[in-house]
Prior knowledge:
Strand content: 15-25%
Bound molecules: the ligand C=CC1=C(C)c2cc3[nH]c(cc4nc(cc5[nH]c(cc1n2)c(C)c5CCC(=O)O)C(CCC(=O)O)=C4C)c(C)c3C=C, fe (ii) ion
Structural class: alpha+beta
Shape: globular
Number of domains: 2
Amino acid sequence: MSNMSKAARTGRPRNGAAMDDGTEAGGAGAANGAAIGQAEANGVARSGARPRQESAPISRRRLLGTAGAAGAAGLMAGGAAGAGVAAAVDGEPVALATVGSAHIPFEGAHQAGIVQPAQARGHLVAFDLVAGADRKDAAALLRRWSDAVRTMTAADRPSAPAAYDDQVAYDAGPSSLTVTFGFGRSFFGRTGLGSALPEALAPLPDFAGDRLDAARSNGDLWVQIGADDALVAFHALRVLQKAAGGTAAVRWQMNGFNRTPGAAPHPMTGRNLMGQIDGTNNPKPSDPDFARRVFVPAGGSPGWMAGGSYAVVRRIRMLLDDWDHLAVARQEKVIGRRKSDGAPLSGGTEFTPVDLAKFNADGSPAIAGDAHVRVAAPASNGGAAMLRRAFSYHDGIDQDGTPDAGLLFVAWQADPLKGFVPVQRKLDGGDGLSRFLRHESSGLFAVPGGVGRGEYVGQRLLEG
Ligand SMILES: C=CC1=C(C)c2cc3[nH]c(cc4nc(cc5[nH]c(cc1n2)c(C)c5CCC(=O)O)C(CCC(=O)O)=C4C)c(C)c3C=C
Ligand SMILES: [Fe+2]
């Protein structure tokens, strides 16, 4: 097991004192409307679509280094970027840009990375405890991981790079980094915690369309990393993997992405790799039943899961060549929404409620019987609902030329039997979209509630 000090494990440098000048984001925003609402409700500081900035200076040396790499002449050209560089050349620090300075607190009632908008870059990683690792080792690991994440996500970071630090994220701010930890069913047997195993971690049923790879499914521990900068996300992954040494080893890892903040002209719901606007009809924190649907209540069972949630993770491959052969009108019928703007085929605009009872003039249902939104809707599943927070993935092109690409689907709910399971049961046979999908791996994880100052994730389980 690693004996790294906290600073040595987690240190990320900053150069000089914080400059809290209240610099605000300008024109950034790829998060969808629902997600923005979620972020605001969750206390994430925002300016427009993206978080308001904690500003930190960039030194003259670093900025000149950047200018040298990118071409100082180009950077010095007029406009806002030119002004920033000129200030740095004069020795004045400049604020971190919008994306870098966005900061999501690690501590809170719920773990971060559930209700906030999914970031531009994601890593989903499962670890298995190594042979001989016990409950005490697991507790020490969760303590190390929590300390590391507390530091990496902080607006104020250590003043000097730690000896071990790869410095991959040396110049960047927190960039909306979140790290979310969960426990798989197998964790409880391995640590002698069988009596604390939640009923909700019962194995997911087999679905007819599943083509699951066991090596890329489940795992003792699950870590979800999200950040709006790829280097920040990689750095977090690397730090956590190193901190796991001697206690847990990576079982599988998946890398995903979403639209980069600022890539769209205004805040809007993101698109998946089929080109559809995806995430419109997610539960919103302002919904009266949001917390009940997504989080285990205080007094729920088991007690250590209060404020927690259950994550269903599915690597869903998209059969993109088949999909792309469909005319857009057919694609829209499969989903039940327009491709261009996400409006339901029953009429209105993106956020108009879907009218499942509406008929066209020719007597056909406006939303087809096997349309994805009809089959997945709470109204078709006894009210079952989940919060979807996905990343796209692309792992290259197969020998036959087909892309290995799709969705790292992550569904959050207070109880999988009232969320993912009934909906997937229905989709499995009756969804027109399922012809274009292949579920290739699966995991179910108990994600405990958030932590207070000095606590570590899972403490109530591991010390209860
Ligand atoms: C078991 C749950 C679901 C799986 C698996 C799933 C996979 C999946 N979905 C899309 C694309 C879209 N899904 C949309 C809506 C939607 N999907 C689910 C559930 C699962 N999807 C629900 C509950 C809903 C909301 C239904 C409603 O109440 O209206 C949409 C429409 C836009 C939106 O509301 O988000 C799209 C598009 C893909 C590509 C996919 C697997 C790769
Ligand atoms: Fe869906």
